[in-house]
Amino acid sequence: MAGKIRLEDRECPLSSALGHVGEWWTLLILHDCFDGYTRFDQFQANLQISSSILTSRLKALTESGLLERRRYQTRPDRYEYVLTELGRSLRPVVIALAAWGNSRLDPAQRSMILVDRETGVEADPVIVDRTTGRRLDGDDFVFTAGPAASPTMRARYTRSRAGERTV
User: Is residue 159 part of a domain?
Assistant: First the structure.
């Protein structure tokens, strides 16, 4: 298993992932980490988040293996929160969510955009299949039951292939 995230009692990987990062403060904290923030006071000042919520979210992100807590000062002890490899692997997801949000706005209304660091040219993020390079946002790609799927999950995707709408 890669990282600490596990499916728990959720068979659906989407449900499991949302169980770890679906709370909106979590994604905003991760976004701050991608921007280089590491310290409690930085997160709190930037996000205008209460101490109790921030403490809870940082603890959950650490327990999930998305962040690592490291001491950077003694007397008194002070800690920073650093992205793990598992946490860094969420960057494309955050980029895709931000791009989706921006796509619904007039360009003049966008408060944050993704640009090429060297050229400053705005990027247009898309998700593609690593093997073929084909975009995944069309009808050519569908979900189906995986090797560990339960009978219920297999039935869901058997129905969906038969043309029934699944909810």
Answer: no
What are the start-end ranges of the H helices in the chain?
Answer: 13-21, 24-34, 40-47, 51-63, 85-88, 91-103, 151-161
Tell me, yes or no, whether 67 lies in a domain: yes
The model's confidence at residue 163, banded by pLDDT at 50, 70 and 90, is low
pLDDT in tens, 89-121: 999 999 999 999 999 999 999 999 999 999 999
Q: How far apart are CA 63 and CA 55, in angstroms?
A: 12
24-34 and 51-63 are packed helices; what angle lies between their axes, rounded to 10 degrees?
80
Closest CA relative to residue 58, chosen from 90, 96, 89, 32: 32
Contact (CB, 8 A) for 21 and 90: yes
- Name the residue range of residue 83's domain: 13-89
Whether the pTM exceeds 0.90: the reply is no
3-class DSSP assignment, residue 108: helix
71: alpha, beta or left, given left = phi > 0 and alpha = psi -120 to 50? beta
43-82: per-residue pLDDT in tens? Answer: 999 999 999 999 999 999 999 999 999 999 999 999 999 9
Residue type for 79, please?
Y
